[in-house]
Amino acid sequence: MTTRVRQLVFFLGALGLAALVVSAFVRLPHFGSGFSIDGAQLGALSVPQRHITDVVTAINFDYRGVDTMGEEFIFFAAVAAVGLVLRPQPDEVVRAEVDAASGRWVPPTSDAVRVLGLALVGPTILFGLYIVAHGHLTPGGGFQGGVVLATGVLLVYLAGEYEHLHGLYPEQAIKVGESVGAAGYVAIGLVGLIWGTAFLDNIGPLGTIGRLNSAGLVPLIDVAVGVEVAAGFVLLLTAFLRQAIVLRVREGEQ
Amino acid sequence: MSLLSALAMILVGAGGLAVVTTREPTRQALVAGLFGILLGILFFILQAPDVALSEVVVGAVALPLMLLLTLAKVRGGSR
Amino acid sequence: MNVLPYLVAAWLLIIGLWGIITSRNLVHLVVCVSVVQSSTYLLLLAIGYRSHATAPVFADIPLGRSVVDPVVQALCLTDVVVGATVTALLLAFVLQVHKRTGSLDPEQLARMDD
Which fold has domain C4-113? Predict the structure, then answer.
């Protein structure tokens, strides 16, 4: 099938799809009517029932906690798959030099970028921890905070210090941390089973609304998910960084 | 439906078109980062701060980084 | 005007698919896949929106105030992070394809048969 024929088939298919999709969308209740009843009920119930002020976190980790566990394991499996696909092959050697795209002179990292990058690592990690810890009070939670934590490593790379990081990078600890985070979610769910009620039942002390130690087990689940997402993204980033910077095919065998 | 949200949606549509029609992958990585920020602003206007936070951090930081690292490896090559 | 967000979501879907079909570079194709994913986020959030309502966070507003639907936001939130991870997996495959065959063009790869 040549390119032209493929594009023609796509045009016809896209016309049909567009017609179906548009005719379905104009029959939806118009934008802004807010026609779902679950949402209104959960918004009204979340604070009195669970003492959680961020309703989205309550849905993610309390009312629909099993679905979030599934999504967390999708993340875990994808990170494991990336580590598998990008593992060092037998015909690649580790070259401890900084990458330069061939045929182009790479200017050294400017001092402003280096100072700012390294100076922002601390505030970024603090900000990430804040988002993870306050997930049940304000917008945030394990997923967002975990990604913000992982960008601390990215800042070190942008500041041009990657070769120093590569030597003292605690890879085993980060892998263990990711697994502990993923298993921690299931373990917290099993606490409910052992107590005699349901899996992932929120049985901790509910506390006062608006304080950090409220909402039962949800802050613990937030921390577990934050650890797992942060470690997973750091593993992703270092797998790509290692490919781009460190691994090279052995000379003469290409 | 306010003017602000209509404008944001039209900008997102234009941004999507820009991402798809930028064929050079290096330039497309930067346009994709900008598209991520536009999406984050639209989600914020639609009263979804959690989703906006996720989208800005992922789409403007993690995704362009992975794209540029892949391109560096592909261009710098197995030399 | 009231169906504008749904039309923009449909537009993003169609144009993302067009980008995938007519792509000449595998990395460009992966970015177009992420554009198609973002059309679903827009559709979900537009379905949940309620006029003159505010964000579903009661930390600083009185209880009983009408809020937008939080269920679709919970769906989109995890979707964004997991979608980025799957995009990373696709990029890892693209890297390995380039290492094996030296080319990133889908047309050329289709013809290298053995």
Answer: Helix Hairpins (1.10.287)
